[in-house]
Amino acid sequence: MAYSRKDFLKLSGMGAFALAGQAVNACTKEAQLQKTVIKPNGISFDSTIGLVAPASPIYDPAQFDEMLVTLQELGFNLKLGKHVRDRRGYLAGTDEDRASDLMNMFKDDEVEAILCIRGGWGCNRILPYLDFEIIKSNPKPLIGFSDITSLHMSMFAKTGLVSFHGPVGKSEWNDFTKSSFKQVLVDGKPGMYQIPEEELYNAYTIRGGKAEGLILGGNLSVLVAMLGSSYVPSFDGAILFLEDVGEDPYRVDRMITQLKLAGILDSINGFIFGQCTNCDAGANSLTLQQVFDDHIKPLNIPAFYGAMISHESKNVTIPVGLASSIDADTLGFSINESAIA
């Protein structure tokens, strides 16, 4: 096909525009890697920990008291939020009261870290009631997983504060979970995350390779429920980590598709799925691995399934928002620096 000078100039301009776009995208990813973050102070096992219930309650009073005993046996001094025992259906009290407890812990000089007692549902509802300027001015470790994803994402998006995707108060504080927590929040060492040999049966590489990027993510369902809001940070160049519980493969497929349609999957440098607890395929279903093969493998980025990020008993503590590295061939990832100031 013959091209006129006009056609040639037009095509050249398009090519230059495309190259410029690629350069801008590369700069955006580099800027994300170098994003200025706020690190909280570390803690010890005799620190004063504020307990809050920003989502659902612990329904059984005996389980609540058992949690308190476990945390005290770890050595923590506990300060309970005013509404931490409240119940309002599947919520731990009103939105305003749950938000108030969280904000009061950030403002309380005696409280050195904030531990959410459990996830469930409700954190998205309290986001409009949070004062992110106060949070930014009083940086403390916020710890939790599952529905606490809302707080991790919004705090990083609004303040740059590093928070910690880790155990909740009612978690099983076994040796594995405690060791990861100690490594990151007490010892201040860069997190190293390898799957224990006895858990490798449930892990696999989706796409091999290595990459770096800010580590962002959490619970898949909660993250998807935040899309389109101002509480979601940029995922350009990020290592995206996800987990979920009780979701059929078609639902995981639907949510992963939503991440793709929102442009997130096409912007990330790496992908980690922890575990999907009770997400087994039934009759006439794709498997989770087929879902990942359909959506993640074509991205040509390092990706794997089976990290110790889940609703299971063994859980790692991940500082959300720090530079990280993924090695999908060895089914591992790491944080490149200390998470505490």
Would you kindly provide a written description of the structure presented here, covering whatever features stand out?
This protein is α/β, with parallel strands linked by helices. The chain has 2 domains: 48-171, Rossmann fold; 192-335, LD-carboxypeptidase A C-terminal domain-like (Glucose Oxidase, domain 1, 3-Layer(bba) Sandwich), CATH 3.50.30.60. The chain has helices at 5-33, 61-74, 95-107, 123-126, 132-137, 149-159, 175-186, 220-226, 249-261, 288-295, and strands at residues 48-52, 77-80, 113-116, 142-144, 163-165, 192-194, 204-207, 210-219, 239-245, 270-277, 303-305, 318-320, 323-327, 332-335. The strands form 2 sheets. An 8-stranded mixed sheet has the order 6-14-13-8-9-10-11-7. It has a 6-stranded mixed sheet with strand order 2-1-3-4-5-12, sandwiched between helices. The longest helix is centred in the first third of the chain and has 29 residues, at 5-33. It starts with a helix and ends in a 6-residue tail after the last strand. The model is unreliable at 1-34 (pLDDT under 50).
Task: Summarize it.
With about 350 residues, the chain is an alpha/beta fold. The protein has helices at about 5-35, 60-75, 95-105, 125, 130-135, 150-160, 175-185, 220-225, 250-260, 290-295; strands spanning about 50, 75-80, 115, 140-145, 165, 190-195, 205, 210-220, 240-245, 270-275, 305, 320, 325, 330-335. The strands form two sheets. Strands 6-14-13-8-9-10-11-7 form an eight-stranded mixed β-sheet. A six-stranded mixed β-sheet has the order 2-1-3-4-5-12, sandwiched between helices.
